[in-house]
Amino acid sequence: MPYIVTTVRLPREMLNEIDEIADKLGKDRSAVLREALREGLRELKIRMALDLYRRGLISFSRVSEITGLGYWEILEEAKRRGVILRYCEEEFS
């Protein structure tokens, strides 16, 4: 996968934390930042999709599409985050 260079402004304290983690993991700063962004984006997508679901704006299957998670993974995330699932009558027929 080709990488594109971008610039981001970070407070010195945050950069120090990143460097400490990189040192402990034996990785370079860029690798740690990519991993942190990947995990952060995953979390943001889950949070956003479940919030939209909670507000009745999207279906459970759409949560799966947005997050890229399977049914059981979404159920676990919803449970962990206190999201109450909505069921329609057809699902009980």
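The above is record 1. Record 2 follows with the same two-line structure.
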Amino acid sequence: MGKAGKALKRVLEIYSISQNHLAVTMGTGRPNVHRWVNEIRDPVAETLLEIRDALKKINPSAAEDFIRLYLGDTSEDDENQP
């Protein structure tokens, strides 16, 4: 578990977005966001898109960073391969 949660936690911290603000923007409960951020539960694929869309409304850069962190930077991965 956790890649989405780690990416989300980092983005919320970097952009000073509260879990509550994201939850309200998404139309979900804050406990759901808490579970994702603390890696208790992974969001399903459809929810990842909802997170991205909500972050776009709050701060488009946060949405871009969330997707980048979630998918990983393939150029960095390629450099670390033997």
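The radius of gyration is 13 Å.
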